[in-house]
Amino acid sequence: MIFSNEQMERYSRHIILKELGVKGQQKLMAGKVLIIGAGGLGSPAALYLAAAGVGTIGIADNDTVDLSNLQRQIIHTSADLGKPKVVSAQETMNAMNGEVAVIPYREKIDSANIKSIINDKNYDFILDCTDNFPAKFLINDACVMLKKPFSHGGIIRFQGQLLTYVPGRGPCYRCLFQSPPPAGAVPSCREAGVLGVLAGVIGTLQATEAIKYLLGLEGLLTGWLLSYNALTMDFRKVKVPVNPRCPVCGGEASITTLVDYEQAVCNL
Ligand SMILES: [Zn+2]
C-alpha cells in the first residue's frame, strides 16, 4: 500500500512515532473494529478510531438520539435529535475522515444476531460500549465462543472500569463476574447518574486498547482490571487471574450457547 500525499499528511503524527511508522499506520488502515453501542463510551471510541484511520469500523445500536444523551454522547449534536444513533455516528465519522468505511448495524444485539454481526466483516477487535449487564455478558460469551478479543468498559456516577480479553492470553469478563446481578440490584445510569466526561475517559481508553491490539503492541489490559475514580483521580490496576472454573472460558464450560438475560436497559 502506497500512501497518497494527503494520507502522509493526515497521519504524519502517527507515522513519525517509531512504534507505528508507515507499517503501523498500514495495520490501522487494514484493521476492522466493531463498536457495540453508539452512546457515551462508543462516541469517543468511534471518533478516535475514525481519526486514527482504522479502515473498517462497524457500529451497532438500535436507539435514536435523545436530548438527555447529549451531555456525554459527543458524536451526536442537537441537529441529530430523533435520528438513529448509527446514522448520526456514521455522518460525524465520515465528515472527519472519509476514507474510513463505517458499517452501521441498526439492531439491538441479542443471542440471535451478535455472532453474525461480529462475523459480518470478520472484525479483529470488539468494543463493548454498552450500558447494561445482559449485553455485557452476551458480548463476553460471544467473543469467547468466536475467539475474538474485546475491550470491556463500564461507567456509573464517577467510577469507570476497563478490562481487555484476548483469547488464550487472560481472563474473560465472566472469570471476574460469573453471572449478571439480579434485575434492579444495581442502579442504571438513568437512576444513578454519570459524569459525562467519565464516558470520554473510559471510551477513549477502549479505543487505545483497540489501536494497540491492531498494532501488535504489548501492555494491553489483559489480566488487569483498570478502575478510575474521577473524584479522587485514582487509576488502579488490579491483577485478575484466569478462573479455571469459568462457566464460559474454563476447561469444563457449562455455557455453550448464548443467553439473553432480562434487564431494564438504561440509555447510557
Ligand atoms: Zn472466563
Strand order of the largest sheet: 3-2-1-4-5-6-7-8
What is the structural class?
alpha/beta
The radius of gyration computed from the alpha-carbon positions, rounded to a whole number of angstroms, is 18 Å
In total, how many beta strands?
8
What is the residue-averaged pLDDT? 95
Number of helices: 10
Order of helices and strands: HHHEHEHEHEHEEHHHEE
Strand percentage lies at 15-25%
Shape: globular
What's the end-to-end separation, in Å? 39 Å
What hetero molecules are in the model? Answer: zinc ion
Helix percentage range = 25-40%
Profile the largest sheet: 8 strands, mixed
Q: Report low-confidence residues grouped into runs of 5 or more.
A: 264-268
Q: What's this, in brief?
A:
The chain is an alpha/beta fold and 268 residues long. 34% of the residues lie in helices and 17% in strands.
Would you kindly provide a written description of the structure presented here, covering whatever features stand out?
- This protein has an eight-stranded mixed sheet, with helices on both faces.
- 34% of the residues lie in helices and 17% in strands.
- The chain is an alpha/beta fold and 268 residues long.
- The protein contains ten helices and eight strands.
- The chain starts with a helix and ends in a 29-residue tail after the last strand.
- α4 packs parallel to α5 and α4 runs parallel beside α10.
- Zinc ion binds next to α8.
Key words describing this protein structure:
268 residues, alpha/beta, eight-stranded mixed beta sheet, 34% helix, disordered C terminus, binds zinc ion
Q: Could you give the topology of this structure?
A:
Elements: H1 5-10, H2 12-15, H3 21-30, E1 32-36, H4 42-52, E2 56-60, H5 85-96, E3 101-105, H6 114-120, E4 125-128, H7 133-146, E5 150-156, E6 159-165, H8 173-176, H9 189-192, H10 196-215, E7 224-229, E8 234-239
Parallel strand pairs: 1-2, 1-4, 2-3, 4-5
Antiparallel strand pairs: 5-6, 6-7, 7-8
The chain binds zinc ion.
Zinc ion binds next to helix 8.
